[in-house]
Amino acid sequence: MNKGKLIVFSAPSGSGKTTIVKHLLGKEDLNLEFSISAASREPRGEEEHGKDYYFISLEQFKKHIKAEEFLEWEEVYRDNFYGTLKSEIERIWALGKNVIFDIDVAGGLRIKHKFPEQTLAVFVKPPSVDELKRRLKQRSTESDDKINMRIAKASVELATAPQFDTIIKNYDLDTAKEEAYQLVKDFVSK
Fold first, then answer.
1. Which tens digit of pLDDT belongs to each residue from 97-131?
2. Is the pTM of this model over 0.85?
3. Is 141 annotated as a binding residue?
4. Is 35 annotated as a binding residue?
Protein backbone atom coordinates (compact mmCIF):
# COMPACT_ATOMS: atom_id res chain seq x y z
CA MET A 1 0.00 0.00 0.00
CA ASN A 2 1.12 3.54 -0.80
CA LYS A 3 2.03 5.92 2.01
CA GLY A 4 -0.63 8.61 1.78
CA LYS A 5 -1.99 10.29 4.90
CA LEU A 6 -5.00 8.93 6.78
CA ILE A 7 -7.28 11.26 8.71
CA VAL A 8 -9.76 9.52 10.99
CA PHE A 9 -12.80 11.26 12.50
CA SER A 10 -14.67 9.19 15.07
CA ALA A 11 -17.38 10.01 17.58
CA PRO A 12 -20.73 8.81 18.88
CA SER A 13 -23.62 9.22 16.41
CA GLY A 14 -24.92 12.79 16.51
CA SER A 15 -21.62 14.41 17.56
CA GLY A 16 -21.18 16.34 14.33
CA LYS A 17 -18.32 14.36 12.81
CA THR A 18 -20.05 13.92 9.44
CA THR A 19 -20.72 17.65 9.18
CA ILE A 20 -17.07 18.39 10.02
CA VAL A 21 -15.77 15.82 7.50
CA LYS A 22 -17.99 17.28 4.74
CA HIS A 23 -16.65 20.75 5.59
CA LEU A 24 -13.04 19.50 5.28
CA LEU A 25 -13.75 17.77 1.96
CA GLY A 26 -14.66 21.19 0.57
CA LYS A 27 -11.17 22.51 1.33
CA GLU A 28 -9.14 21.82 -1.83
CA ASP A 29 -5.81 22.67 -0.19
CA LEU A 30 -6.15 19.58 2.04
CA ASN A 31 -6.22 17.19 -0.96
CA LEU A 32 -8.75 14.87 0.71
CA GLU A 33 -10.91 12.07 -0.62
CA PHE A 34 -13.66 10.46 1.43
CA SER A 35 -13.26 6.80 2.32
CA ILE A 36 -16.60 5.17 1.60
CA SER A 37 -17.29 2.49 4.18
CA ALA A 38 -19.06 -0.77 3.45
CA ALA A 39 -22.24 -1.48 5.44
CA SER A 40 -24.42 -4.56 5.73
CA ARG A 41 -27.55 -2.50 6.35
CA GLU A 42 -30.13 -0.93 4.09
CA PRO A 43 -29.77 2.75 3.07
CA ARG A 44 -31.47 5.33 5.32
CA GLY A 45 -33.18 8.44 4.01
CA GLU A 46 -31.32 9.90 1.04
CA GLU A 47 -28.22 7.69 1.35
CA GLU A 48 -26.79 6.40 -1.93
CA HIS A 49 -24.74 3.29 -2.73
CA GLY A 50 -21.20 4.26 -3.74
CA LYS A 51 -21.55 7.76 -2.30
CA ASP A 52 -22.47 7.42 1.37
CA TYR A 53 -21.68 3.70 1.79
CA TYR A 54 -21.16 0.58 -0.23
CA PHE A 55 -24.34 -1.24 0.78
CA ILE A 56 -23.69 -4.97 0.62
CA SER A 57 -25.56 -7.96 1.96
CA LEU A 58 -24.64 -9.56 5.27
CA GLU A 59 -23.56 -12.67 3.36
CA GLN A 60 -21.29 -10.65 1.05
CA PHE A 61 -19.85 -8.72 3.98
CA LYS A 62 -18.91 -11.99 5.71
CA LYS A 63 -17.27 -13.23 2.47
CA HIS A 64 -15.10 -10.08 2.40
CA ILE A 65 -14.11 -10.68 6.04
CA LYS A 66 -13.15 -14.28 5.32
CA ALA A 67 -11.06 -13.17 2.32
CA GLU A 68 -9.29 -10.56 4.54
CA GLU A 69 -10.33 -7.74 2.19
CA PHE A 70 -11.04 -5.24 4.99
CA LEU A 71 -8.56 -2.82 6.52
CA GLU A 72 -10.90 -2.77 9.51
CA TRP A 73 -14.43 -3.93 10.24
CA GLU A 74 -16.81 -4.04 13.17
CA GLU A 75 -20.11 -5.60 14.05
CA VAL A 76 -21.50 -2.34 15.39
CA TYR A 77 -24.89 -3.81 16.28
CA ARG A 78 -26.08 -7.41 15.95
CA ASP A 79 -25.81 -8.45 12.26
CA ASN A 80 -25.03 -4.83 11.39
CA PHE A 81 -21.47 -4.64 10.06
CA TYR A 82 -19.42 -1.66 8.91
CA GLY A 83 -15.90 -1.70 7.53
CA THR A 84 -13.27 -0.21 5.25
CA LEU A 85 -12.29 -2.23 2.21
CA LYS A 86 -8.55 -2.22 1.48
CA SER A 87 -9.43 -1.57 -2.17
CA GLU A 88 -11.06 1.74 -1.15
CA ILE A 89 -7.84 3.05 0.42
CA GLU A 90 -5.80 1.86 -2.58
CA ARG A 91 -8.26 3.65 -4.91
CA ILE A 92 -7.81 6.95 -3.07
CA TRP A 93 -4.03 6.69 -2.77
CA ALA A 94 -3.85 5.91 -6.51
CA LEU A 95 -5.48 9.34 -7.04
CA GLY A 96 -2.61 10.89 -5.03
CA LYS A 97 -4.98 12.03 -2.29
CA ASN A 98 -5.14 11.82 1.50
CA VAL A 99 -7.87 9.60 2.92
CA ILE A 100 -10.44 11.01 5.33
CA PHE A 101 -12.64 8.66 7.34
CA ASP A 102 -15.95 9.17 9.12
CA ILE A 103 -16.06 5.90 11.07
CA ASP A 104 -16.91 4.39 14.42
CA VAL A 105 -14.50 4.59 17.34
CA ALA A 106 -13.30 0.96 17.20
CA GLY A 107 -12.55 1.18 13.48
CA GLY A 108 -10.78 4.49 13.87
CA LEU A 109 -8.49 3.11 16.56
CA ARG A 110 -7.71 0.01 14.46
CA ILE A 111 -6.55 2.22 11.58
CA LYS A 112 -4.42 4.29 13.97
CA HIS A 113 -2.79 1.12 15.33
CA LYS A 114 -2.09 -0.27 11.83
CA PHE A 115 -0.67 3.01 10.48
CA PRO A 116 0.50 4.95 13.56
CA GLU A 117 2.82 7.40 11.77
CA GLN A 118 0.59 8.32 8.84
CA THR A 119 -2.73 8.57 10.73
CA LEU A 120 -4.24 11.55 12.52
CA ALA A 121 -7.03 10.18 14.74
CA VAL A 122 -9.54 12.83 15.85
CA PHE A 123 -12.34 12.27 18.34
CA VAL A 124 -15.30 14.65 18.12
CA LYS A 125 -16.82 15.13 21.54
CA PRO A 126 -20.45 16.29 21.85
CA PRO A 127 -21.57 18.82 24.47
CA SER A 128 -23.48 16.12 26.40
CA VAL A 129 -25.28 12.80 26.06
CA ASP A 130 -28.60 14.68 26.35
CA GLU A 131 -27.62 16.85 23.38
CA LEU A 132 -26.71 13.70 21.42
CA LYS A 133 -30.15 12.25 22.08
CA ARG A 134 -31.81 15.50 20.97
CA ARG A 135 -29.80 15.54 17.72
CA LEU A 136 -30.59 11.90 16.95
CA LYS A 137 -34.32 12.45 17.52
CA GLN A 138 -34.20 15.57 15.34
CA ARG A 139 -32.83 13.51 12.41
CA SER A 140 -36.05 11.44 12.34
CA THR A 141 -34.24 8.59 10.56
CA GLU A 142 -34.37 5.93 13.28
CA SER A 143 -36.76 4.36 15.76
CA ASP A 144 -36.64 5.19 19.48
CA ASP A 145 -35.13 1.73 20.10
CA LYS A 146 -32.27 2.44 17.65
CA ILE A 147 -31.71 5.87 19.21
CA ASN A 148 -31.56 4.32 22.69
CA MET A 149 -29.03 1.74 21.42
CA ARG A 150 -26.89 4.56 20.02
CA ILE A 151 -27.08 6.52 23.29
CA ALA A 152 -26.07 3.45 25.33
CA LYS A 153 -23.13 2.92 22.98
CA ALA A 154 -22.13 6.60 23.22
CA SER A 155 -21.09 6.25 26.88
CA VAL A 156 -18.65 3.48 25.95
CA GLU A 157 -17.37 5.44 22.96
CA LEU A 158 -16.83 8.62 25.00
CA ALA A 159 -14.52 6.64 27.31
CA THR A 160 -12.18 5.93 24.35
CA ALA A 161 -11.57 9.62 23.57
CA PRO A 162 -8.15 9.75 25.34
CA GLN A 163 -6.84 7.03 22.96
CA PHE A 164 -7.13 9.43 20.00
CA ASP A 165 -4.43 11.90 18.94
CA THR A 166 -6.69 14.84 19.66
CA ILE A 167 -10.20 15.69 20.82
CA ILE A 168 -12.34 18.39 19.24
CA LYS A 169 -15.13 19.56 21.54
CA ASN A 170 -18.11 20.29 19.30
CA TYR A 171 -19.93 22.80 21.49
CA ASP A 172 -20.00 25.33 18.64
CA LEU A 173 -19.98 23.90 15.11
CA ASP A 174 -18.17 26.78 13.40
CA THR A 175 -15.39 26.67 16.00
CA ALA A 176 -15.12 22.87 15.68
CA LYS A 177 -14.90 23.12 11.87
CA GLU A 178 -12.09 25.69 12.07
CA GLU A 179 -10.20 23.67 14.68
CA ALA A 180 -10.52 20.54 12.50
CA TYR A 181 -9.30 22.44 9.43
CA GLN A 182 -6.17 23.71 11.22
CA LEU A 183 -5.37 20.25 12.65
CA VAL A 184 -5.70 18.53 9.28
CA LYS A 185 -3.85 21.29 7.41
CA ASP A 186 -0.89 21.00 9.82
CA PHE A 187 -0.91 17.19 9.57
CA VAL A 188 -1.05 16.88 5.76
CA SER A 189 1.66 19.52 5.28
CA LYS A 190 4.22 17.56 7.36
1. 999 999 989 999 999 999 999 999 999 998 887 87
2. yes
3. no
4. no
